[in-house]
Amino acid sequence: MVPVLRHQGIHETKKTMANITLDETLRPLWKLTYYCGILLDWCRPISENNHRFWKASRYLCIVMCSFLLVFVFTFELAQIFIGIESALNVHLVILNIVWCIPGMVGVLIQEQFLRHRREFLAFFKGWRRLEIEITKLNPHCIMCKSRRIHLVMYTIHGGLAIAGLISLGFEIFNRPDATYLLSYYKTIRDSVPLLLICFVHLAVICLTLFLLTLSDLVTSFTYYHAGLAVDCLENFARTVFARGFNTEDRLFITTLDDNNQSENACKSLTKSSSSSAEVRVSIQLIWARFDNIDQLINQANSLFGKFLVCSQVFYYLGDALRLRSTVLILPYVMNFLGIGFRFISSMLISSQLHRSVGKFRMSLNYLLSQHWNQMSKQDRYLLRSFLSRLCTDSLVACPLGLYNITPSILLSIVGLVASYVIVLLQSK
User: Fold this and answer.
1) Which residues cross the membrane (predicted)?
2) Alpha-carbon distance 343 to 99, whole Å?
3) Do 311 and 411 touch, CB atoms closer than 8 A?
4) DSSP letter string over 211-273?
5) What are the backbone angles phi and psi of residue 89, rounded to the nearest 5°?
6) How far apart are CA 234 and CA 423, in angstroms?
7) Rounded distance, CA 228 to CA 207, Å?
8) Helices assigned H by DSSP within 245-376
């Protein structure tokens, strides 16, 4: 099957399976942010034929969302300072801090997406170009065949968000006089319906949850598709070596010294030299495509890491404080499962890049050892240089250069979370 990159100038023919590009993976998130007026065009540019009325409406929605986030964040921050003056200990203002964190995180993420919009557009434009280059390099390799992992992640994140909003809605109606709610002040509680106050708080939390999901999934799926691109390079390398050094050439080389057939020897040597040239050119192409992937991943580490690290640090801090303030067992377990799923799923999907690069390196080592005698000295040097580059400067997801996203990081996090849970249980 020849994969098809939709909407990228490669026309679709009679195929039963098409390659699922990164654009198609992120399209649901892009449509929600675009048509709901949460963000500007960050993945694909807006059409120039777009009517001015819709542009003005979108800008107005973005301003309103930003104002709502800043307003609620300012209110919660003020409530924290007021509570600190009268609180006997920090534990009494934990819930105020928990309700303040979503507004702060929402403001940070939205600001990053809006301020770096052109950089996002340039990055995804470069990524579409890379996908086309890899497809032309190896037309029979399909990078992403199934939407299952994408649909599962979208469904679970949506389910967690809905469950969280429902539980917080019940909390607002059960405790309308809590210090972290607008209804804490009797004047507001008497003049504004409680349903409207609940809508304001839940709107901010819903917007923050969506922006967090956006930052997690965009980053994770970008690293995931980068790993799939490396897998395509590995398949292409195997195909090239299998085509360039077949079994007949191998048998000829081993028996050349024993047979004195000069005419067949010249033909085979000519064929071997042409195969060697094809392998050499293919290795250079693989190296160039790998460097392109490396360049885009370095951009992603800087571009996505700016808000990914901040959102994870502040939001996981909020989850930890929420666990500390939870008394009932069921909410405690649900919060703990939510924290675990968000982190583990993000790390596992992003670590696909690390696994693919390791597999790619092992495959090249195997091909080098299997075809050592068939390769020319120049080809050996070229492939060994490329392997040295893979070993010394490994391609890995590393937001802001702070930590490498590999499966081993889960062990450290599990140990940290287990210690924290034990301390909480003992303190209760």
Assistant:
1) 59-82, 88-109, 151-173, 193-214, 329-349, 408-425
2) 21
3) no
4) HHHHHHHHHHHHHHHHHHHHHHHHHHHHHHHHHHS-HHHHHHHHHTTT---HHHHHHHHHHHH
5) -150, 170
6) 46
7) 31
8) 247-255, 262-325, 329-350, 352-370
How far is 237 from 151, CA to CA, in rounded Å? Answer: 31
Residues 6 or more apart in contact with residue 320 via CB below 8 angstroms: 339, 420
How far CA 222 is from CA of 225, 227, 232, 325, 334, in Å, comes to 5, 9, 15, 35, 29
Dig out the tokens for 169 from the structure.
């809605």
Side-chain half-sphere of 94: how many Cα atoms within 13 Å?
A: 14
The token pair that represents 154 in the structure block: 């979208």
The stretches of 371-408 forming alpha helices (DSSP H) are 377-392
Which residues in the chain land under pLDDT 70? 1-18, 45-51, 89-90, 246-276, 311-336, 416-418, 420-428
Q: Which pTM does this prediction carry? A: 0.82
Q: Give the CA dihedral 215, 218, 219, 220, nearest 10 degrees.
A: 120
Among 275, 283, 280, which residue's Cα sits nearest to residue 249?
Answer: 275
The Cα angle at residue 417 between residues 149 and 212, in degrees rounded to 5: 45
pLDDT in tens, 330-350: 665 666 677 777 778 888 888
Tokens of 370: 């299997």
Residue with tokens 């980053």: 219
Alpha-carbon span 124 to 300, nearest angstrom: 10
Question: Rounded distance, CA 252 to CA 408, Å?
Answer: 46
Tokens read off for 328: 């009932």
Angle 398-404-407 (CA atoms, 0-180°, nearest 5)? 130
CA–CA distance, 180 with 184 (Å, rounded to integer): 7
**Which token pair is 384?**
């060994």
What amino acid occupies position 254? T
Q: How far apart are CA 397 and CA 302, in angstroms?
A: 10
- Residue with tokens 């469904």, as numbered in its chain: 155
Return the pLDDT at 98. Answer: 79
Single-letter residue type at 251: L
CA nearest neighbour of 325 among 85, 76, 89, 106: 89
Residue given tokens 């675009």 in the structure block: 34
Give the tokens for residue 270.
């000519």
**How far apart, in Å, are the Cα atoms of 343 and each of 4, 25, 57?**
33, 20, 35
Phi/psi at 256 (nearest 5 deg)? -65, -40
Mind listing the pLDDT tens digit for each residue in 281-314?
Answer: 888 899 899 999 999 999 988 888 777 777 666 6
